Amino acid sequence: MQLAIDFVAGAIHDAYDTGVICSTDTDLLPALEFVATRFGRQRAETAAWLAGGKGSELRLQQPSTWCHRLDLPDYEAVRDPTDYARP
Fold first, then answer.
1. Radius of gyration (C-alpha) of the chain in whole angstroms
2. For 63, what's the count of Cα atoms within 13 Å in the CB-facing half-sphere?
3. Residue 83: inside a domain
4. For 3-14, how does the pLDDT look when each residue is reduced to its tens digit (9 = 90+)?
5. Global pTM?
6. What range does the domain containing 42 cover?
7. How far apart are CA 8 and CA 73, in angstroms?
8. pLDDT reported for residue 48
9. Is 52 left (phi over 0), alpha (psi -120 to 50) or beta?
10. Confidence at residue 55, expressed as pLDDT on a 0 to 100 scale
């Protein structure tokens, strides 16, 4: 939920040029759709990890969204090891 709120708030406050949601969780589709339709598709992209050459991606059809497909080396390069569950 926090990711969706931050993604939308960032677009509203012009905090980023392009926001990328790194998830395949379909609960994030409303936030992705809001930003893509309200601010233009260039403001909203997604990333998904490949498993065995296939990936599940979070994607809108209208407007279309770009999906970055990450393999293991890509994932390791962008991985955030922070444990956000700890205060």
1. 13
2. 16
3. no
4. 999 999 999 999
5. 0.77
6. 2-78
7. 29
8. 86
9. left
10. 57
For 49-68, b where at least 16 C-beta lie within 10 A, e where not — what string? beeeeebeebebeeeebebe
The DSSP string of the chain is -HHHHHHHHHHHTT--SSEEEE---GGGHHHHHHHHHHH-GGGEEEEEEEETTEE-----TTTT-EEEEE-HHHHHHH-----TT--
Q: Is residue 85 part of a domain?
A: no
The tens digit of pLDDT for each residue in 29-83 reads: 999 999 999 987 678 999 888 765 555 788 787 777 888 888 889 888 988 888 8
- Total structural domains within the chain: 1
Q: Is residue 84 part of a domain?
A: no
Q: Residue 87 falls within a domain, yes or no? A: no
